[in-house]
Design a protein that fits this description.
Distance between the termini: 39 Å
Strand content: under 5%
Structural class: mainly alpha
Order of helices and strands: HHHH
Number of helices: 4
């Protein structure tokens, strides 16, 4: 499995197993940064690291969702509906 292709490329298809592997990696990265931030306490450096990791996870998550949609024979534009529709309810 090519992890670089899995996380940063919008092309191709992925099955459910690879999708859930990506979700587990995202959860582990978020938990690691959150736990580290909790252990160290508030600092501007940890706050910046948290924002950077959150942005990377969000961007990579969109790409992984696009590939999963391709596997379901749907276009990647459906991701806008998944992320945009709940945002309109705020």
């Amino acid at each position: 499995m090519n992890f670089v292709n899995l996380f940063i490329s919008p092309r191709g298809r992925i099955n459910r197993a690879k999708f859930w592997i990506a979700i587990m990696v995202f959860a582990a990265a978020s938990l690691l940064v959150g736990g580290l931030s909790f252990a160290i306490g508030y600092s501007p450096t940890m706050n910046a690291l948290g924002w950077i990791v959150s942005l990377l996870v969000a961007a990579s998550g969109v790409l992984v969702c696009m590939k999963r949609l391709h596997d379901r024979n749907k276009t990647g534009w459906w991701v806008l509906l998944f992320y945009g529709a709940p945002a309109t309810l705020l």
